[in-house]
Design goal:
The chain has 296 residues and is α/β, with parallel strands linked by helices. It has two domains: 3-214, Rossmann fold (3-Layer(aba) Sandwich), CATH 3.40.50; 226-275. Helix content is 33%, strand content 27%. The strands form three sheets. A six-stranded mixed β-sheet has the order 6-7-8-3-9-10, sandwiched between helices. A four-stranded antiparallel β-sheet has the order 2-1-4-5. A hairpin with a 5-residue loop joins strand 1 and strand 2 (17-26). Helix 3 (92-102) crosses helix 4 and helix 5 runs parallel beside helix 6 (167-178). The longest helix has 14 residues, at 108-121. Mean pLDDT is 90; it is low at 291-296. The structure holds adenosine-5'-diphosphate (ADP). Residues 12, 14, 16, 18, 35, 37-43 line the site of adenosine-5'-diphosphate.
Length: 296
């Protein structure tokens, strides 16, 4: 069952166009929605999670009209928001039990079985009696996944889930996400390229409310294959290279800047052709979008 988004737009009261005519088909499995901060990801996630109204457009999950049938959507939705706000001072067990009750699991025995299974699944069984307020970032996110899985959702939305997690916690969280069923639409909204690289078979890039790319990470890599050039420079040369070339990435390797430039030919002496990464794809789209405000 695909999620089909057509012509979705949203302008805030202050005039910011957070979504500009976004059309996107999201199949079952893990889908990465990649964009820098302010791109419009949370706006899109909140609209799909029935928490916000769109100005125009539609979203259909199979034959369910997501924008106009909010009650029905909430029954099949698992949502892990960017921030929970205040974390409750009750135990993980009590909180899951409470949410399960709210979601309609009214039979005590059934609820106990469900809550226990979820706590085991997200590896919080040992901590079930601890207050969530005292959990680490990774534990809070795993708790978030547990609550989003109550009610066997068909659509799971996870908004910026790995921001602030250390590498170990991030890995545990990745492993957990990959265990979610294949017949569920899982949208992972993130500005972290690694999240998409490790988890997603399909992805989209958005910036300033516009869809810039949709397809598989491999398609995205193929688009720029053979056109990424790399050079290791010194810190003092960085400004000069930034002025002379359009850098698509710049990172430090062993303390030295390693820059990537996109081009059909070597941009200057000393550049070597390198295999593109998803990060190159991301920055290629984002930077060309900055120089060309009206993007097709
Ligand atoms: P992302 O999740 O990709 O960081 P958001 O959807 O949060 O992006 O924001 C998209 C744009 O809309 C940003 O420019 C942001 O400042 C603006 N925005 C978000 N929420 C509101 C709001 N409630 N009122 C006004 N502007 C908003």
């Amino acid at each position: 069952m695909d999620l089909i988004i057509s012509g979705l737009s949203k302008t805030y009261g202050n005039g910011v166009k957070a979504l500009d005519n976004v059309s996107l088909t999201i199949p079952t499995g893990m889908f990465g929605l990649l964009g820098p901060n302010g791109a419009g990801k949370s706006t899109l996630m909140r609209i799909l999670a029935t928490l916000q109204e769109a100005d125009a457009g539609s979203a259909m999950l199979g034959d369910l009209d997501v924008l106009n049938n909010k009650e029905a959507v909430r029954k099949v939705l698992g949502y892990l928001p960017q921030e929970f706000g205040v974390y409750p001072r009750v135990s993980a067990y009590q909180m899951l039990d409470h949410i399960a009750l709210l979601k309609g699991v009214t039979k005590g025995g059934e609820r106990k079985e469900l809550v226990e299974a979820l706590l085991q699944k997200v590896n919080l069984w040992e901590h079930r009696k601890r207050r969530i307020a005292g959990f680490s970032g990774g534990m809070k996110q795993r708790f978030g996944i547990a609550q989003s899985l109550i009610g066997e959702p068909k659509l799971i939305i996870v908004d910026e889930p790995t921001a602030g997690l250390d590498p170990g916690e991030r890995n545990r969280f990745y492993n957990l996400l990959t265990e979610i069923g294949e017949n569920v639409v899982v949208i992972l909204s993130t500005h972290i390229v690694q999240d998409v690289q490790e988890l997603c078979s399909k992805m989209a890039i958005i910036n300033k409310g516009k869809l810039l790319f949709a397809g598989s990470p491999n398609d995205a890599l193929r688009e720029i294959d053979g056109r990424v050039w790399e050079k290791t420079i010194t810190k003092s040369e960085l400004e000069q290279y930034t002025k002379a070339h359009q850098l698509i990435s710049n990172k430090l390797v062993a303390g030295k800047p390693v820059i990537h430039v996109l081009g059909d030919h070597a941009p200057a002496e000393g550049f070597l052709k390198t295999a593109p990464t998803l990060e190159d794809v991301f920055f290629t789209h984002i930077s060309s979008d900055m120089t060309t405000p009206v993007h097709a």
